[in-house]
Design goal:
The chain is an alpha/beta fold. The chain is built from eight helices and eight strands. It has one domain: Vaccinia Virus protein VP39 (Rossmann fold, 3-Layer(aba) Sandwich), CATH 3.40.50.150. Strands 1-4-3-2-5-6-8-7 form an eight-stranded mixed sheet, with helices on both faces. The protein is globular, with a radius of gyration of 17 Å. Bound molecules: S-adenosylmethionine.
Length: about 220
């Protein structure tokens, strides 16, 4: 990871068993690859037992955006996915302190969770300030990236929204190219649309005066 992207060391204890059972799933790679049918699917019905609109934050970090959305909109459900344990412990702590009933966190690799997405079940998907890859010119990596975006597209309801932002211009161009040319998203005429959605990484780059680019695309009806 490049300088300036290292998260500071997080000191946090794991949640107690009851809190973890309420808020946190841990899905290991071997289960995701070998036995995905044993895991709940990433839908409101299977994770929350209701059919409320669902938002998923891919790479949620400490869950700041996820907790904020869940607190602000109690009529929706929110899922935050991340592979890092300690940031998720922070997310779970905050969700418990806020007594949120409409949020879950999943620890694991979101690429491996694509089979758990179901068509037409997600209202909004966020992929904000992901760690910038070094392989944007590698066609095999872009196939994987395209499959990820296609999986999100298929999971969205008609009219559902996908949010992406990054501070790396070449990565933005790569993603914009896939979104515009390979996948049936409606892309805005301008290749830079600020959703106004704030996350810790956005705030960090803003404080450092580092520009970033973002886009919101819509799944067609
Ligand atoms: C740079 S942070 C951004 C956090 C947050 N979205 C924000 O904007 O503040 C990227 C996060 O994505 C997570 N991540 C990266 N690749 C992942 C993967 N394949 N599966 C799950 N999480 C991943 C990292 O652990 C990290 O917490």
């Amino acid at each position: 990871m490049a300088r300036g992207r290292h998260p500071t060391r997080i000191h946090i204890d794991p949640p107690d068993a009851q809190t973890a059972a309420k808020y946190l799933y841990c899905w290991h790679g071997c289960d995701l690859f070998r036995e995905p049918h044993r895991l709940p699917r990433l839908t409101s019905r299977e994770l929350f037992g209701n059919d409320r609109p669902l938002e998923i934050d891919f790479g949620c970090g400490k869950g700041i955006l996820a907790c904020s959305r869940a607190g602000q909109y109690p009529e929706i459900n929110v899922v935050g996915i991340d592979q890092s344990q300690k940031p998720l412990f922070c997310a779970v702590r905050d969700a418990a302190e806020l007594k949120l009933e409409n949020i879950k966190f999943v620890r694991g690799d979101f690429y491996a969770m694509l089979p758990l997405l179901q068509p037409g079940t997600v209202n909004k998907a966020y992929y904000l300030f992901p760690n910038p890859p070094h392989n944007i010119y590698l066609s095999r990596a872009n196939v994987r990236r395209r499959l990820f975006l296609q999986g999100i597209h298929d999971a969205l309801i008609p009219g559902g929204l996908f949010y992406f932002a990054t501070d790396v211009p070449s990565y933005f161009e790569c993603m914009y190219d896939i979104l515009k040319n390979s996948i049936m998203f409606r892309t805005p005429d301008s290749a830079n649309v600020d959703s106004g959605i704030s996350t810790p990484y956005r705030q960090m780059w803003e404080q450092k005066g580092r520009p970033f680019r973002s886009i919101v695309v819509e799944k067609g009806i």
